[in-house]
Amino acid sequence: MKKSQIAAQLFTLRDFLKTPEDIAVSLRKVKQIGYDAVQVSGMGPVAEEELVKILDGEGLICCATHEPGKKIVEETAAVIERLNKLHCKYTAYPFPHKMPANEVETVGMAKEFEKAAVTMAAAGQILTYHNHSNEFARFGSRTMLDIFYDEAPHLQGELDTFWVQYGGANPVSWIKKLSGRLPLLHLKEFGILDGKITMYHIGGGNLEWDKIIPAADEAGVEWFIVEQDNCLIDPFESLKLSFDYLVSNFAE
């Protein structure tokens, strides 16, 4: 992992991204922490052209976005247009816009992903899937997530380490399973506080980063994206602790 491959998922800072002015101030802080790239998500209304101007002004890359799931499968052309405006190659389907209840429905949903992924590939873009724990429900011999990847060969991965662990699976095993089709990895820490599962900054919990990062490097991960849905401390400070931990222990 190179330092330049570490990105911040802006959903972490969503409370500080309500207006274009907020976005500009927050992105400056992100750059000052040391990040060179961000994943665009969780922000208030801002024109793509204005966002690109802010990013360029701070020397930040938009490495990926999250777009609404329904829009990805039903308005793929609009997603392609947005990514082009942001000079961005990757987006991720962030959360099921409908939750399949059985294997047949899951396969049908995977076919929707495949259609969108093929359309995006023709435009030089890549559709990835961001999991939570829901996708580790089993239908027969396969989990929902297995079915998505089995039945949508053009779909690539944006694994979330916290939610893989929360779903009862192994982050390293899943990274290896998706080797060669995992350009994005959400680094999210899993820990326990007062007996409850809790999200921490990277290095503050219990995930085995000394195994996760090397496996991700070997699998061909391009962007290591730090995300924390809920922070125990100031979100900017949490992003800094995560960045410093990764740079000190793993970055070349």
Give me the CATH architecture, please: Alpha-Beta Barrel
**Span from first to last CA?**
6 Å
Helicity level: 40-55%
The CATH class designation is Alpha Beta
Brief synopsis:
With 252 residues, the protein is of the alpha/beta class. It is built from 10 helices and 12 strands. It has helices spanning 20-33, 48-58, 69-74, 76-85, 103-122, 144-151, 161-166, 171-177, 209-219, 235-249; strands at 6-9, 37-40, 61-66, 90-93, 126-130, 138-139, 142-143, 156-160, 184-187, 189-193, 196-200, 223-226.
Quickly list its features.
252 residues; single chain; TIM Barrel
Question: Would you write up a description of this structure?
Answer:
- It is a single chain.
- The protein is of the alpha/beta class and 252 residues long.
- The protein has a single domain (3-249), classed as TIM Barrel.
- Helix content is 43%, strand content 20%.
- It has helices at 20-33, 48-58, 69-74, 76-85, 103-122, 144-151, 161-166, 171-177, 209-219, 235-249; strands at 6-9, 37-40, 61-66, 90-93, 126-130, 138-139, 142-143, 156-160, 184-187, 189-193, 196-200, 223-226.
- The strands form three sheets. It has an eight-stranded parallel beta barrel with strand order 1-2-3-4-5-8-9-12, surrounded by four helices.
- α2 (48-58) links the parallel β2 and β3 (61-66).
- The radius of gyration is 17 Å and the shape is globular.
Write the layout of secondary structure elements.
Layout: E1 6-9, H1 20-33, E2 37-40, H2 48-58, E3 61-66, H3 69-74, H4 76-85, E4 90-93, H5 103-122, E5 126-130, E6 138-139, E7 142-143, H6 144-151, E8 156-160, H7 161-166, H8 171-177, E9 184-187, E10 189-193, E11 196-200, H9 209-219, E12 223-226, H10 235-249
Helix pairs in contact: 1-2, 5-6, 8-9
